[in-house]
Design goal:
The chain is an alpha+beta fold and 492 residues long. The protein contains 14 helices and nine strands.
C-alpha cells in the first residue's frame, strides 16, 4: 500500500510499513475473530480468580465436582492466564501492517519498531471488559450459603473486587478513547488513499541520493533517500524520506518511486503517497555490508525476507510428513475417547469431557495441517489463527493429567483386562500427542509461508512488490502467473 510522505520524514519518529490492502483486511479479520476468544478467556480468568481465591480463603472445596477435589478450578487458576496472555497478542508486526506504520526514534545503532500507540487498544479493552465480567460472575457463583460468617466474607471479596477493578476500569477508559482515535485515523487514511490515488496526479520520482544511516530497525538497515519528481508547469519537488529495507533490495541512486499527490495541495505531505518499485531496479552493491552486525548471541541481520531464502529450506514432502504426524496424533486421541466408556465406566463426567475435548482438538490440529497440505489460499490469510489451533492440544496435557490420570477412578481398576491397559497407555500417548503438536505448531507459525509455497518459483521482487502494493489484484496476479499463494502466511 502506498504510504504518506509525512510518515517517512527523517525528523519524525514513525516508519512506514506499506502493506497490501488484502493483507490488511486479513489481519483485521483475524483480529475480529480473536477478540471474542480474548474476551471469553479473560472472563474465565476473572471467574477462576474469584473462585479459587474464595476457596483458599474459606479453606473449603467450594467448587469441587461430584465431591472430589477442586482440580478444575485450580487448573483454570494456574493455566488460563498464560493462555489468555497468548491470545491477547496479535503481534507487533500485524498491528504495524494494519495501521501502515510503526513508531521508533532510533536513538541507537539497533532498535525495535513498535506498533502505533493506539494500535493495541481494542485488545486491551476486550481483555479488561472480559476480566471484569468474569470477576462479577465469579462473585455471584460463590455458594455463600455454605460459608460460615458469609456476610463478612462477602464484604471482603467485594472489597477485593473493588481494589482490582479500579485500575482495570482506568485502563479500560483510556483505551476506549485511544481505540476511537485509532478508528478515526484509519478511516481518514483510507479516504486520503482513495482520493489521492483515484483523483490525484501521478508522477515518477527518482532517487537522487541514497545512504545508509548506520542504524538498524528491527534488524533492517535504515536508509535516508532524496526523491525528486516533476510538477505540472515544468517545476519539480524534492523530498527526503527515511525507510527500512532488506539489504538485498537496498535502494540506490536511479531507483524509482510511484508518487501520487493532490494537485490542489502538492506540498501537503499527508496527501503525497509513495510506492517503491522493485521489479527491474538496480540495487546497492555488496548488500552483505548492510546486514546488522551480530550482538552477543544474536547473529547478523537478515539479508532477505524469510519467505525468500537464498536456498530453499522447505519442501513439499515436509507438508506431507507434518500432516501424517498430526493424523497419527489425532488417531491416538480419537481411539482413547472411543475406548474410555468400555474401559473405565466409573470415570466422572468431567474426565470424560476432558478426554473428548482433547480428541476434538487433535482432530482440529490434523485438519489445520490438511489445509496446509492442500495449499488452500484460506491458509495464507489465516495462518496465525490456524497456528493457534495447532497449539491448543498442548493445554490437554495439563487437563488430562489433572482430571483423568490424577483422579482415583482410573487407578482403582486392577487392569486385569487388556482394554484397560491399552486405554491407560493411550491416555499417555494423547498427552504426548499434545506436546508433539505444540512443537509442530512452531513450524507452522515460523515457516508457514515457506511450507505453503515450497517448490513454487516466483521472482522475489515481484512477490515483495505485490505484498506492498495498494492494488489488491497484485496478489491475485501472482497466483495466476506462478501459482504462488501470498497472504499473511507469506510474511512469517
Amino acid at each position: 500500500m502506498a504510504f504518506p510522505l509525512n510518515l517517512a520524514r527523517p525528523d519524525g519518529d514513525t516508519f512506514p510499513f506499506p502493506t497490501s490492502p488484502v493483507i490488511v483486511a486479513d489481519r483485521l479479520r483475524g483480529l475480529r475473530l480473536r477478540l471474542p476468544l480474548i474476551g471469553v478467556l479473560w472472563a474465565l480468568v476473572g471467574a477462576a480468580y474469584i473462585a479459587v481465591t474464595a476457596s483458599l480463603l474459606f479453606d473449603e472445596p467450594l467448587f469441587a465436582f461430584g465431591g472430589g477435589s477442586p482440580l478444575a478450578a485450580t487448573a483454570a487458576y494456574l493455566f488460563l492466564p498464560s493462555v489468555a496472555f497468548a491470545a491477547n497478542l496479535v503481534g507487533n508486526q500485524a498491528l504495524r501492517q494494519i495501521y501502515g506504520f510503526g513508531e521508533s526514534e532510533v536513538p541507537h545503532d539497533s532498535n525495535s519498531c513498535f506498533a502505533p500507540t493506539n494500535g493495541g487498544a481494542v485488545q486491551r479493552c476486550t481483555g479488561c471488559a472480559g476480566f471484569l465480567t468474569g470477576m462479577a460472575a465469579g462473585h455471584f457463583l460463590v455458594p455463600w450459603g455454605a460459608v460460615a460468617d458469609a456476610a463478612w466474607w462477602r464484604q471482603a471479596v467485594l472489597g477485593l473486587l473493588l481494589v482490582i477493578c479500579l485500575p482495570v476500569v482506568r485502563i479500560l477508559r483510556f483505551d476506549w478513547i485511544r481505540m476511537r482515535a485509532a478508528r478515526s485515523w484509519r478511516r481518514d487514511s483510507r479516504r486520503v488513499l482513495r482520493e489521492v490515488v483515484d483523483g490525484g496526479t501521478h508522477a515518477v520520482a527518482t532517487v537522487t541520493a541514497a545512504r545508509h544511516t548506520g542504524k538498524w530497525l528491527d534488524r533492517l538497515p535504515v536508509f535516508r533517500l532524496t526523491l525528486t519528481w516533476p510538477l505540472p508547469g515544468g517545476g519539480e519537488r524534492t523530498a527526503e524520506i527515511r525507510v527500512t529495507e532488506y539489504p538485498c533490495w537496498a535502494p540506490a541512486e536511479g531507483n524509482t518511486f510511484d508518487v501520487w499527490y493532490d494537485p490542489a495541495a502538492p506540498d501537503d505531505d499527508s496527501r503525497v503517497l509513495l510506492h517503491r518499485r522493485l521489479v527491474g531496479q538496480r540495487f546497492a552493491e555488496d548488500p552483505e555490508k548492510l546486514r546488522e552486525p551480530a550482538h552477543g548471541e544474536t547473529g547478523t541481520g537478515p539479508l532477505r525476507p524469510s519467505w525468500s531464502p537464498e536456498k530453499p529450506t522447505a519442501s513439499a514432502g515436509e507438508r506431507v510428513l507434518f500432516f501424517l504426524i498430526a493424523l497419527l496424533c489425532a488417531g491416538a486421541g480419537v481411539t482413547a475417547a472411543a475406548l474410555t466408556p468400555a474401559a473405565f465406566d466409573a470415570l466422572p463426567w468431567y474426565s470424560d469431557l476432558a478426554i473428548d475435548a482433547q480428541a476434538v482438538l487433535l482432530v482440529a490440529n490434523a485438519c489445520a495441517w490438511g489445509v496446509l497440505l492442500l495449499r488452500r489460499p484460506w491458509f495464507a490469510r489465516h495462518r496465525t489463527s490456524v497456528a493457534l489451533v495447532t497449539m491448543l492440544p498442548f493445554t490437554g496435557i495439563f487437563t488430562l493429567g489433572l482430571l483423568v490420570l490424577g483422579e482415583d477412578p482410573v487407578w482403582l481398576f486392577e487392569f486385569d483386562r487388556t482394554i484397560e491397559t491399552v486405554t491407560a497407555w493411550l491416555y499417555g500417548g494423547t498427552m504426548a500427542a499434545g506436546l508433539v503438536t505444540y512443537l509442530l505448531s512452531f513450524a507452522m507459525l515460523l515457516r508457514g509461508g515457506q511450507l505453503l509455497n515450497a517448490g513454487i518459483d516466483a521472482p522475489p521482487e515481484e512477490v515483495a512488490e505485490a505484498l506492498r502494493h495498494h492494488d489488491p489484484a497484485a496478489i491475485d496476479r501472482l497466483r495466476t502467473r506462478y501459482g504462488y499463494i501470498a497472504g499473511t502466511a507469506t510474511l512469517s
